[in-house]
Design a protein that fits this description.
two-stranded antiparallel sheet; 4 helices; flat; 2 strands; alpha+beta; 10% strand; 104 residues
Length: 104
């Protein structure tokens, strides 16, 4: 699998990379009642099982689509449970962080 562009992991690192001339694009999105916002670290989609297969974007997007009507807590449980089941007892080398928010 190809590597993604390196993302800053801390505010200090972000400021340092910005100082070095790294640029980041930004945009604004209007969220409406019922919309779900999911923010996650690359450790979620790059989590590997014992066969060194990554969890991947496709699997995550399918899971989110299947659970889109659930509460934020239910969606988070589904994501983390699915990743946990996928990786089994394989040792992970990155954090697995996910935030889910539903607009009310």
């Amino acid at each position: 699998m190809g590597h993604r562009a390196r993302k800053p992991k801390t505010i200090t690192e972000f400021r340092f990379l910005k100082f070095l001339g790294t640029s980041y694009n930004s945009s604004t999105v209007a969220l409406e009642p019922g919309d779900v916002l999911v923010i996650f670290t690359d450790g979620v989609v790059e989590a590997e099982n014992n066969q060194e297969e990554e969890y991947g974007d496709t699997r995550l997007l399918a899971l989110l689509a299947a659970n889109r009507r659930g509460s934020a807590a239910d969606i988070l449980k589904a994501v983390m449970g699915s990743v946990d089941t996928f990786v089994g007892d394989a040792r992970q080398h990155d954090d697995l962080t996910c935030l889910v928010a539903r607009v009310v």
